[in-house]
Amino acid sequence: MAVSSSASKQTVNPFLRSWAWKREHRPDKDRFDRPYIHKMVVDGCQHTLSIIQAPFSIRGFASTVWDSAIVLSKYLERWPLLVNGKRCIELGAGCGLPGITAAYLGAAHVLLTDLSENLPLLNQNVLKHNLVNKVSVAKLEWGQQADLHNIQTYDVILAADIMYDASLTAALLTTVRCIALASTRFFLAYGRNRQAEETFFEQTKQWFSVEKIDAEKLDDIYQCVDVDVFVMQKRRDL
């Protein structure tokens, strides 16, 4: 008797399924030097993204595709209406995978932001995927009014693996409050690098409602126990 694909998914150990795509155990060549190959389906057509990564610099700054970025991107792919026709911004974009995914899913415009050192890499990934008419790149240091001055409000905010430094939480939330409308949804994913988690959610509750996205709503394959995804919106009672 033939076994359906959905049934076979349920019988495979979830850890083994995630281990097939997870990145953090991969050698440095895969994580920093070679492009990350990401396959996605849009309107029944398969697309292959080739995301350029960057090794560590003298400042210790590196841009790699983290597991959380993959989980978030695959979540958007499963629910494309979350970004279709929307103005989107990615914070701490790194390689820009979630933002580039949003562009492929029909976002009206995407702004990829990061520190100035990382902008050349983001521009390379935008050019490589012929997205210059839909995706822009800009410097954004959280909490800096000079950077925020030229940035608009957005319908969707995306961020992956930015929960690494509790000292940055206040600046991050200042930025989010400035660029978010009452209707804006902020999708945040992070993995084991979550040192700021407690501080972040303690400070967040003053301004935002927070909902953890259930595993059932994530992609069947691209999810794992050490990556959480949340959606936040400005509190309506303020």
From TrEMBL:
UniProt cross-references to Pfam families, sorted A to Z: Methyltransf_16
Signal peptide: none
SUPFAM superfamilies: S-adenosyl-L-methionine-dependent methyltransferases
InterPro entries in alphabetical order: Methyltransf_16, SAM-dependent_MTases_sf
PANTHER family xref list: HEPATOCELLULAR CARCINOMA-ASSOCIATED ANTIGEN (PTHR14614), PROTEIN N-LYSINE METHYLTRANSFERASE METTL21A (PTHR14614:SF154)
Protein name per its UniProtKB record: Uncharacterized protein
Organism of this sequence: Adiantum capillus-veneris
